[in-house]
Amino acid sequence: MPWPTYGFAPERTRAVQLPLRPPYRVVWRYQAGSLIEFPPSIGFDRLFFSTNKGTFAAISEKTGKYAWKYRAHRCVAASPAIGPHAHGTVYEAFLNRPPCNAQNGGHGVDGEVIAFSVGHGKIHWRHRIGPSESSPLLVEDRLYVGDWNGDVWAFDANHGDVVWHRHIAHAAIKGALAYAGGHLFVGAYDGHVYCISKSGKVLWRGSAQPRLFGGSDFYSTPAVAYGRVYIGSTDGKVYAFGTADGHRLWSHSTGGYVYASPAVWRRRVLVGSYSGKFSAFDAGTGEPDWTFRAGGPISGSAVVVGNVVYFATLHEKHLKNGRTYALDARTGKQLWTYPDGKYTPVVAARGKLFLIGYGVVYGMVEKR
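The chain above was modelled as a monomer; its predicted structure follows.
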């Protein structure tokens, strides 16, 4: 499958080697009707994604025409995962019912995980959990999801049976889990990053640096590479922890919140910040390699396609929404921009780039 999960691979490194390079031209547009905060996953010749208003959609990769929709009547802030089970299944995590700013622990606040048939959207199974904006992680026949209650769930991907359920953190888990070397990794809103065995045992807990004022919450989904866990924090820093023991190896300030999840490519950690700076850090030392100053705050996660890194700004002057940037990942040189964007910039398949605007998905090909 071209792009089966959030961050492209279970390690969530967000980098794919495809020979795509800007500039691009638009060949179709899909009007989603409301904000698309988290990117589509791609498989079975379709894009699957949710809007913030709770519509889960499958659209054609070739034409952008919708194949089916499911209206969850729940808030959504996660990407789906696609797997081969039952001739094609797509899994999505859902938050509470509106209002979407309902606080954790409120009366009747819950979430759900649903497994759909990729063909017609038939529901294979569903399970009630805490509100979840944790993009599901599929590893073989196990599906892993975190929730606002600080719990991690492991489901049988085929039938939806609970394999295990553990209370991991005394705060919300909002990011997705990553997987590498037989272990699971996730950050939480208690300032800690956790390593968990596939049986649900906490193996270690890494900590953000202490602060005199404010907190260090991990909304970012970790990326795992080179024996390290890379993750952004609301304290404005990007962190690297050792995968073996959770030892904090380095941290580097960006000057603003880092809600974004890092992309990891060729010994570089690429991530944006609310300060408007997009930076490439040396994966080994944490020293900045290059920095690019965008025209607005960056909240969404970067993606590398070939040797080009893409990110989007939340808003900019003279634009209703944000802007999507394409930079040379080696040097930080700007190669191209597009006047729409908000959170996640792009996903890609062979010969095609899909750019995610505020409430629009654009199907693009290279200009010839």
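The chain has one domain: 15-366.
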